[in-house]
Amino acid sequence: MRKNIIVANWKMNLNLDNAIALVRSILDNLSFENQPEIIFAPSFVYIQKIAQMCRDKKNIFVASQDCSANDDGAFTGEVSANMIRSCGAKYAIVGHSERRMNFNEMTNILRLKVKQALAKSLNVIFCCGESLEEREKGIYLNSIKSQVSDALFHFSESEFSHIIIAYEPIWAIGTGKTASALQAQEVHAFIRSIISEKYGSNIADNISILYGGSCNPSNASKIFSQKDIDGGLIGGASLNATDFVAITSSF
Ligand code: PGA
What we know:
This protein is α/β, with parallel strands linked by helices and about 250 residues long. It has helices spanning about 15-30, 45-55, 80-85, 95-100, 105-120, 130-135, 140-150, 155-160, 180-200, 200-205, 220-225, 240-250, and strands at about 5-10, 35-40, 60-65, 90-95, 125-130, 165, 210, 230-235. The chain has an 8-stranded parallel β-barrel, surrounded by 5 helices. Strand 7, helix 11 and strand 8 (about 230-235) form a beta-alpha-beta unit. The protein is globular. About 45% of the residues are buried. Bound molecules: 2-phosphoglycolic acid. 2-phosphoglycolic acid (PGA) binds next to strand 8.
């Protein structure tokens, strides 16, 4: 079912004490009425602790920031979807642009990661987004279409219903430059339309599509007021409890 969701993508930040203090402060200050679903995406090593802290909280869950493309086995340093699930996470982020760029994750790997996550009962937050060059050349919709369809459109309807899409224009991530609400809405509507063509309008109407890229308390309400924008994937502003709580009440 389509719902409003805010994800806190902490990236490689915070030590354990700071992570615990941040979650405590957010939980203490949330207004639980009409609250969107909230998902904390800490480093792998804090997943179990943060999941315990959120266990009895309504509509608050934990995601990993990535997962291995492989099943459990001889892959030193990797973290499998099975392990992530067993530590209490309900979601896995796959395909963040920082992983695509810094770790060379291409479509073939992303397909395997999504497959692993779904097979181990993790819902997937799949990220896509165009570069500045693609935007300036006017080919951003083609880029989004191939990122989404090449990685995801071979999944069955029932598998696809466990996927959330996060549109994150690369030029807006951590740069302070946000896509305007209309620029974001255009891409979100486009993503919904290609999903509708492939899986039908029922699935397209029910999928949550989140915006990410320099989202903060001053621009969140305008962005979330757009028809096809169901929430946000928040990086920098999710590290500050006051800013993050303000974003969660921006619907
Ligand atoms: P930002 O990051 O909010 O710091 O731009 C968003 C993200 O990368 O998920």
